[in-house]
User: Fold these one by one.
Assistant:
Number 1:
Amino acid sequence: MPDPAKFDKLREIGYCIPITCGTCVHGEFASPSALWGTCGRHKYQHGKHTGPERGVSVYRHGFCPFAFVKTPSPVGEYGAHGEFFRKVPAGCPR
């Protein structure tokens, strides 16, 4: 069970977790520690190769306006910290 005092303090200081490619439902990474992966939403036709479109390469800590968190519920992958996710372009509360 999370400590309520800890969450009160996080709210007080305006803590947030930016929604990035690493937490987005469209981010595809080889492992949890991989810094580079691909985007399942934004695809392109590679100029040097034939075949189907491929996802653009993305950095785990990058973001776009279309990003959204994989599990926004408090019981998901991020536990009770799910309430702290914020869209990066909108900024984190202060």
Note: The mean pLDDT is 82.
Number 2:
Amino acid sequence: MLSALFALFVLAVAGIIVLVVAATVLKFALKLILLPLKLVLLPILAVFFLVKLAVLFAVGALLLVIFLPLMVLFGVFVAPFLVIGALAH
């Protein structure tokens, strides 16, 4: 009875090892199959990233151009009131 349980345990461990090895081989094969696709898509992703970076830079420059004169006007018209308010407090 004990040897049958031991044999069952050994078969279960061997089955788990076989499943792990099969999963590893399948994962490696899938990576190997998808490698050319990844190499083809890499330049497309690089161009997409550069366009995204250029758009973000342009939006940032646009916001700076819009808000910089508003900040200057705010400083010119509001700063005296802030100074007077700070001195009166």
Note: Residues 40 and 61 are 33 Å apart (CA to CA).
Number 3:
Amino acid sequence: MANWFLNLFKEKISSILLSKGFVMTFDSDHSSSTDPDWPFQKIIYKKDNTTITIGQEDWRDSYFIYYIKENGNRVFEVNTTKEESIDSAINSAVAALNSVLSHY
């Protein structure tokens, strides 16, 4: 379940972030193995002085934990193994992201 989380979440949130004027500046799916963040699933969106990072906690031990950060501050975390379903985890993350974006 966790392996699909970021890709499914990315599908749901890209249009939300783009409509708020954010631009994707990093996607680990398109990074090389020489990038220090390569093993971690992560996407980064930026707008002016705001950075939204959505990523995987760790690729070895905590690969099932994902987070949302606003300017480096963690504002949401989901443990996909404790959710009822992948849809439940994604819906929780989308709601959290919408809350973060409500002041943009």
Note: The mean pLDDT is 83.
Number 4:
Amino acid sequence: MPNPEIAMHASAGGRAKAARRPLRAEHVAALPALDSPRAAQAWLRAAFEWAAIGKVNGSRALAMVSAIREWGKLREAEATFEAIEQLRATVHQLEADRDRLAQELEQARLEGARS
């Protein structure tokens, strides 16, 4: 017969291990600012290592990884938005060039018709 309290006991064991090896502020402070893919890799590696050696429990490590994943999505969205804005500016410039050339062509036609 399965033990309905096993989850409580398993969870308590994970907390006990993490409590024996606490994560300290200087561990987090040693990580680079989360501002590049390379920094995100360092954070992911730290989450994995801290979970593996019991500095954080699995739930906390998963939360760290999820937060870094969301950071990556945000960074990707920002890059996409920036690319779209650059494309808009290029399209605007091309439209302005097209309109200017159309006016020059029309003016040349009028001048050619006068002569």
Note: The CA atoms of residues 50 and 56 lie 6 Å apart.
